[in-house]
Fold:
Amino acid sequence: MTTYARIIDNTIVEIPTLVDSFTIAECFPAETVALFTEVPDGTPVGATLAKDGVTWTNPPITPITPSPSPAPPQIVYPVLTPMQFYLAFKPQERIAIKTSTDPVIVEFWDTFQLAVTANAGIDPNLASIQEGLTYLSAPTEPTVAIITAERIPQILTGVAQ
Amino acid sequence: MPKLSDFFSSSPSSSSATVVMYNAPLLGMGQMPFFGTGQFRIIVSGVVNFVCPPDCSRARIRVLGGGGNGYPVNGSDTGGGGGGGEFAYGVFTLTPGAVYAVTAGAAGGTSSFSNLISAVGGSPGAGYTGGNGGNNGAGGTFRAGGGNGGNAPGSYTSGSGSGGGGGAGSTLGPGGNGGNGAASGNYTNCSGSGGGGGGANSGNGLNGNGYSQPGLGGSPIPGANSLPNTMQNMYPPVVPTPRWNGDSVDGVSTMYDIGGILPGIGGGGGGQGGKGGTNGVATLSYGGVSSCYGGGGGGGGNTTVGLIGVGGRADFGGGGGGGGTTANNQGPYGLGGQGMVIIEW
Structure:
């Protein structure tokens, strides 16, 4: 991955951490991207650029208090209402789920009904929800797949079909 | 959750005109009014893929750059304070279901929401020179730069102190500048400099006079350079540890600004300078008294042999104070406050 830095008076004052799968142009406005310059990988904050314009010298003092390491990128899905979750499935998918005799899918549907009855939010971040959708896309034979794997993130985000 | 009707009411009138009253709740200094459905997410010091919720087609986004670290002095020396982080906000149209890159800068880092809006972090102290406050970010409808870090006196003498950190920008305006470190004195008559006030145009930090009188933080009130000690003590200190480091906080606002999670939005005074002196114990000084958009941390005080002056540390966005000074040791430098992104819809 390319390393970018914000440089003031030939000294690196910032090395931004980019969100995985995003380019720097997708992470910052164009005017801000212009503040960053590509530098060799491993060049730390505080390094200074020599007059030759090529050589970087690391800062003379090692920071005694390490900066907190950036957290790994994460996807946190918003909690959905039962209706949002329901409408995230296509009509033919809903019909297939409701008419399925596969005990795993029946259990998935029953759990959803409990959420409807309790009018409780559905948290797409729960493993049970994500595992249930994964099973719908790759069930045990002889059950056939009801959704494709590509549909899972679409359903988890609750976008109505 | 408040409904729109809670904020508007129609009153009977003898005339044919309809009188609409806006029952806005009282807002604290620098607080922003209720927005959208009241739902929000706060992201602090980390990079996150933000999945736009189904009911989020319009969002108010605030970004705050991280404050720069104070200069890490080595041996008998002083250091400049870090600059405060820039602040900006705007309202944007988003696409439900889309994934946006969110960057909340660490100390000195730039914060952004996708390629829509950014706020640049403050620069770290560079030797004796205080770091510049963050500016030059882009996007949004309102923008306020961070205050500059205070300068160190230029060389070590007994009793000299480091510069205070600049305050962060906020809804109130640009952050105040950190106080410059005292040039000379003696071990029993020195103290650190005050940090700049968060979001106060003139809320610069003031130096203390003697170890028994630490420097004062800048005031969040434009035109006032500092709050009296008695007033500073009225505000509970902000917890100085990362509260949601690399994490995000979701919630629904119930009143005023985002649910009261962030105290004293609008910036408080910077932290006091660290005490020094033969009998003084160097004290950590945290910027951002009662502040979300933090004031700068105070500069580290001078100490005698065996004690370590510690640069002040800021809360969100404020610059850290310069490194503390000792006769023969390295004083830990003040850390800049973290950046932050707030998404409301």
